[in-house]
Amino acid sequence: MKRLLAPLLALALVAGTAHATEVRIGYQKSSLNLIVLKSRGILEKRLAEGGHTVKWHEFAAGPQLLEALAAGSLDVGMTGDTPPIFAQSAGSPLVYVGFEPPKPQASAILVPSDSPIRKLAELKGKRVALQKGSSAHYLLVRALDKAGLKWEEIQPAYLTPAEARAAFERGAIDAWVIWDPFYAAAEKTVKPRVLTTGEGLSANQSFYLAARPFASKEAKLLQIVFDALSDNDDFLEKQPAEAAQVLSRAVGLDVPTFERVIERRPSFKVTWLTPQVVAEQQRIADRFAELKLIPKPVTVKDIVWQP
Asked: What family does the entry list (predicted)?
């Protein structure tokens, strides 16, 4: 990871960051790497060496986070694979600056334990809850494709994770498409039946994005952020039990829930986007465009940061 944005250093020498800057970072409850980084205070210490500070902002999900980034209220944030596509289609000034490995087991389509729904095809005509423009949105699209159903053949209920869980518990929806840690928490307390995970359907990758003006002007600060994430990656990989405790204290869910969440993620290593990752993002974007679920088609590589 320390080499991820190495080319940015040359740019930083030109752009400079002699002025004191507050780096505004957006995260959500699924942003495990950022939550642990925030809890350990590593980034604060490193930024302070240059006279800089950091401010953290929590969001319900990726779409809300990227709305804030587009509005100029954030500098950097992490989301799933789908929110950047919706944001790019809407003209948001953002760029991809890194990604984490696939974690298809970390998202799922859930139904109540006593639901008669046993197959994806049986979602036809059913009310399915999801966060619009989130990674869950693409998982549902792929699941319907696999089942031979059209998007118009279900009743999407666009709800935040908290709203969807409440609706799920009171029986107001037939199925719920959700990601960790909400998925793991529901497994433990609500005891749903998993209709399918993302395995074979959606890679469910997480992406780090930055406001384009910030990426252009504050290259050195981006390097500091990613260097801190590199060290944090090692902590998550080598000390998962301690990491689960840190996450539990920060988020408010119990330790076993986060042990399950960490178990489902093969790695937290953040790396520069590869051509293969860009191609996969483009496939997602093209499918949403075909379904007319985004305002206009996009070319993903146009917003992959090239210093």
From this structure: Belongs to the bacterial solute-binding protein SsuA/TauA family.
Tokens standing for 95? 């760029």
DSSP secondary structure code for residue 195 in this structure: E
Neighbouring-strand partners of residue 89: none
**Does 1 map to a domain?**
no
d(CA 241, CA 307): 37
pTM (two decimals)? 0.89
Q: Are residue 211 and residue 63 in the same domain, yes or no?
A: yes
Residues 215 and 218: their CA atoms lie apart, in Å, by 6
Beta bridge partners of 176: 110, 129
State pLDDT tens for residues 50-93.
999 999 999 999 999 999 999 999 999 999 999 999 999 999 99
pLDDT tens, 96-114?
A: 999 999 999 999 999 999 9
The beta strands (E) that lie in 150-272 are given as 155-158, 175-179, 193-197, 207-211
Please check whether residue 179 lies inside any domain of the structure: yes
CA distance 80 to 56: 18
Strand 107-111 relative to strand 76-79, pairing:
unpaired
The CATH number that applies at residue 186 is 3.40.190.10
Q: Are the C-beta atoms of 264 and 59 separated by less than 8 Å?
A: no
The residue segments making up the domain with residue 164 are 104-197
pLDDT digits (tens, 9 = 90+) for 175-228: 999 999 999 999 999 999 999 999 999 999 999 999 999 999 998 899 899 889
Residue 94 is assigned to a structural domain of this protein: yes
- Residue in this structure with the two tokens 């590199």, named with its chain if needed: 230
